[in-house]
Amino acid sequence: MAKRNLLDKMRKHYEMTEKMLEQFLKKIIHFALIKPRVIVSVPSGVTEVEERAVIQATMEAGARRVYLIEEPFAAALGAKLNISGPDGHMIVDIGGASTECVIGRGHDMIEGESFHVGCVNTSVTFFKDRKITAQSMRRAILSATSVLDGSEYKFVKGNWQEAFGSSGTVSAVSSILAALKITDGSITLYALEQLKDRLIHAESIDKIKFDGLKEDRREVLAGGIAVLIAVFNKLKIDVMKVADGALRYGILYDLAGRKLQRDPREASVERMMAAFHVD
């Protein structure tokens, strides 16, 4: 019975993914004469079975060719940093259900990993009643920290000199800190703790009010701050700056590089393509 339920759940997820892709591709195919090429970002550490499932679902949805790129690598491409120097950079991209951490130096990704914790799933799990308490925030931070356990050795500070964030969560937090004149927009653990206290004082997601904060971002701000605090604590980050790019830009750069054959990061892309056995 348990095996049957698991298979049913997997089948439903596959069907939902395929239907979602179909809707996206319909909008593109409607204006195109040929089927599009599609690049899909996937968490690092996905199995070959999962890779094949993603490719098959995308092909059945109407793609002409499917490429896979690891999300940490896409985050590194999309961060749009000055990567010509010898110094290493840490890039953190907090998504809805996963967080990508990358160390890049020059045009190479030194380390990269996807962690299954993000602003949406954390908010839904720990603030589902829309109430924000010291206890719920503490539990959210501890949960996010546990997901990051074991990552310290990969992302020790000796491997990077500057930390950058490239997500909506990081951008929103930076804007709030600057508006409140807590920092100049740079993010520190002390500043995050101040924002955490303000959220707890608000008591409810509905009562969160910061200048420039968008409605959709307000819904997941508590979860995003909990994840950020966990990242700062676990990876020993002192200061994080905002990078303009994100996963979506990395995916576009990667696809453009494949087509134009002139992207300066082409060698890294080719290595990733080889790893995923795509041509």
Features:
279 residues; alpha/beta; 16% strand
Could you walk me through the main structural features you see in this protein, from its secondary elements to its overall organization?
This protein has 279 residues and is an alpha/beta fold. It has helices spanning 2-29, 48-60, 71-78, 119-126, 134-148, 168-179, 189-202, 215-218, 221-235, 247-260, 266-275, and strands spanning 37-42, 65-70, 88-94, 99-105, 108-115, 162-165, 187-188, 239-242. The strands form 2 sheets. It has a 6-stranded mixed β-sheet, with helices on both faces. A two-stranded parallel sheet has the order 1-2. It is globular and about 55 Å long. Mean pLDDT is 79; it is low at 1-10, 246-256 and 258-265.
**Biggest sheet overview:** 6 strands, mixed
SSE pattern: HEHEHEEEHHEHEHHHEHH
Record the strand order, biggest sheet: 5-4-3-6-8-7
From the alpha-carbon coordinates, what is the Rg to the nearest angstrom?
A: 20 Å
Write down the overall mean pLDDT: 79
**Tally of contiguous helical segments:** 11
pLDDT under 50 segments (min length 5)? Answer: 1-10, 246-256, 258-265
- Percent in helix: 40-55%
Please provide the count of β strands: 8
What is the first-to-last residue Cα distance? 40 Å
Shape: globular
* Structural class label: alpha/beta
Q: What portion of the residues fall into strands of 2 or more residues?
A: 15-25%
